[in-house]
Amino acid sequence: MAPQELHRFHEVPPQPPSPIRSHLHSQNRPPHLHLHRIPRPGLQSLNPTRPHLRQPPITTGRGPKQNTISAANYGPTWRLLRRNLVTETLHPARVKSFSQSRKRVLQDLINKLKIESKSRDDHAVRVVDHFRHATLGSLLSMCFGENIVNDQEEDVIKNVDKMMRDALVSSSSRFSVLVFFPRLSKTLFPNMWAKLEEAKTSREIVLGPLIKSRALENNNNNNYNNNGNVACYVDSLLNLSIPEEGGRKLGESEIIGLCSEFLNAGADSTATALQWIMANLVKHQDVQDKVFEEIKRVVRDDEEGIIREEDLEKMTYLKAVVLEGLRRHPPVHVPIPHAVTDDVTLEGHLVPTDASVVFLIAEMGWDPAVWDRPMEFDPGRFVDGGMGGVDISGNRGIKMMPFGAGRRICPGVALSMLHLEYFVANLVWEFKWTAREREEVDLEEKQEFTVTMKCPLYARLSPR
């Protein structure tokens, strides 16, 4: 059907009252999809068994030209960048090659938790900062190589963490006016522009030397696999060329952007999800006990006391706990918008060309038409094929999508699940987690870059 005929027979979704702030809630039931452009049509409350993300008109991203995986337009360059990340860094064999790095990070996390717990009279620890430090340490090794990070690990993590926090502040919603009205906003909001430039400069100051150090190490060794080095993400970026642009190599600013994207996408969301999961294990002691009993049945006596990654595959209840944590508390409620390339109709509504599409992740996981008692934390719903064997990749229908879905699904799904299962299993194996005396775990949410706990978790850690 021609575009003009679509306009004739299908109603455009109602427009929000403002081009900047959109309707995200419905009075009758949770919304699942929101569409907008300026002026922005909006569509809410789509069927949760939605196949729409797998249809080409919606899966194509469109926006300003940027050579990062999350922001690049769909096309040869986007496919090249994504394929490089998936095959050279996130392939199971590559991920496994960094198992010793994850083990070292885990041991460091456990030791720090023990030290802080012993130093406090009530043995209660504010855990989220430790979680962020651990996830960031693991990702830094994968990004820049273990040799570069290990030599100055604490300083590197501290500097990168500050850089990332500054960058996340500059990308918050209050800076959106700079995008909508760039010329006018430079006059009206000079301090905000200065903050934006400061964040960009900080990224170059912090990440630039790490990239150069790795490049120098590779040149000295003639090959990054010499001396037992494990190939990292930066190695692949330094060797990548873009055929559509005459075979040129990526520039330093492009590599910095891709490395920043890799770290931002993994560190904050994983640490946030880990805190939500552990908070629910503190609140629901029966669930924590079931996780511990499953671990005892699966693991063998290990002199080091660390649960091996290969043992995780046998822990079905652990996987259910992680899935339920992601369903009930997805770290990101509203993902990066995508766009349609042609007029298309969804449930009788016209989605016009160039309209942005925003799926509301949390509301999907809380939909009472799909989930029984959706606001309760119940890992049992995922056990023994519960919910029809929920597929978080979206290939067999979409009931929840904590990592997105379609061709732009987060490429790090498997790595994120590995980090969460690995940390949760070992933290429960090492400690019994309980709330502080005369306190209950507060699960109220707070919107930052991710949706985190308004009152950070303080847990009493008792060695097993």
UniProtKB/TrEMBL annotation:
Q: Which GO terms describe its biological process?
A: secondary metabolite biosynthetic process
Question: Any idea which positions bind heme?
Answer: C410
Note the topology in the membrane: Single-pass membrane protein
Cofactor names:
heme
Which UniProt keywords are given for this protein, alphabetically ordered? Heme, Iron, Membrane, Metal-binding, Monooxygenase, Oxidoreductase, Transmembrane, Transmembrane helix
Q: Which PANTHER family match?
A: CYTOCHROME P450 89A2-RELATED, FLAVONOID 3'-MONOOXYGENASE-RELATED
Q: What is this protein called?
A: Cytochrome P450
Report the source organism: Stephania japonica
